Amino acid sequence: MEILRRSNMAFLWLLVRLWVGYEWLTSGLEKVTSPAWTGENAGAAVTGFLNGALAKAGEGAHPEVHGWYADFIRAVALPNAKLFSYLVSYGELLVGLALIAGLFTYFAALAGAIMNLAYLWAGTSSTNPEMLALELLLLTAGPVVWAIGLDRFLMPFLRKRISPG
């Protein structure tokens, strides 16, 4: 793991951030411009997605969607589908922009990882496993992940402002 923290790996992390950021950005843009996500029918797409996840919930040792997550969908997500629709749409867009810019990189990678986990728990795969793995690496590789990005300038400034004394 130490090899990934070296300063000469900054360009590799830039490429990782750009790819993961692009994936989030394009997905978020698609949703933000869709009436089923953020327009007059906001919540419709989320409701369809969540009902699809519930259809995958089952009994047995290895259901695609575990019972606890199905309970969360029924009790929290479905009754608030419109809110989740906006949170997901703009969350994806903002995570994508932040990763591409290298701005609040750790927070963006963490938010992306949480969304990828939620999608995986809902029984989808797509690029979620690859993105989750890369986001976890971004979270553990240290400051080199934002060496080429806006955080390179922002983080030292914030440290000076926040540190006591």
TrEMBL record:
It comes from the Bacteria. It is a multi-pass membrane protein. GO terms for cellular component: membrane. Keywords: Membrane, Transmembrane, Transmembrane helix. The chain crosses the membrane at residues 93-120, 132-150. Its main location: membrane. It holds the Pfam family DoxX. It is found in: Membrane. This is DoxX family membrane protein.
